[in-house]
Amino acid sequence: MEKSNQKRQFSVTRAKTRRKPRLLRRELDFYQAAQADQLVLALTQPLDKTALTKVVVNQDETDEQAHQVTYQIFGGFDHNAIKINLAQIDQAEHTLDWVGLMTFTGFQFKYVKPGKQEFIFALADEDAYAYCGKDPCEECVFKCKNGFKIYLHCQQHGLFCFDVSPRSVINNKL
């Protein structure tokens, strides 16, 4: 009888929405500062575009293959996260600055320390939306994370962007 009076506790990170959220942005805009070796993420339109040059995502197939990332969505309903793995990238030849994840509601990034290959991005609220809660995610036809993007910056080759989608040309699942 005690169980019927207890309310089930859900994780604070669990999605509260019953429908797949919409993306607030389709892509991120990065700019290179003219006088310094700085990459700038524009959350809004930059005020002084004369000092900034828009950075184009590297689309060279040879460079892209040398910078392949793999990922896995896991955690089900209550502890949703994405694990990004950089093990396929030769970090002796490529100096990686950071890896980032664009989600429904924002952007997270983590610096890449030499030798570190796995990065876990915890998801909460709308970003944690999951249709079925399978752990690990099977990336079925419901495409719960479709629209998410993984960004990677390499000092030698620039900025790369990979889709998190079961329908992408190269399925980068772990």
Report mean pLDDT, rounded to a whole number. 85
Neighbour order of strands in the largest sheet: 7-6-9-10
Radius of gyration: 18 Å
Percent in helix: under 10%
What's the count of strands? 10
Order of helices and strands: HEEEHEEEEEEE
* Tally of separate helices: 2
Task: Report strand %.
Answer: 25-35%
Low-confidence stretches: 167-171
What can be said about the biggest beta sheet?
4 strands, antiparallel
Class by SSE composition: mainly beta
Q: What's the N-to-C terminus distance?
A: 44 Å
Apparent shape:
globular
Short recap of the structure:
The protein has about 170 residues and is mainly β. It has helices spanning about 1-5, 60-65; strands spanning about 30-35, 40, 50-55, 70-75, 80-85, 95-100, 105-110, 120, 150-155, 160-165.
Structure description:
By secondary structure, this protein is mainly β. The chain is built from two helices and ten strands. The chain has helices at residues 2-5, 61-66; strands at residues 29-33, 39-42, 52-54, 70-74, 81-85, 96-102, 107-111, 118-122, 148-154, 158-164. Strands 7-6-9-10 form a four-stranded antiparallel β-sheet, with no helix packed on it. The chain has a three-stranded antiparallel β-sheet with strand order 2-1-3, with no helix packed on it. The radius of gyration is 18 Å and the shape is globular.
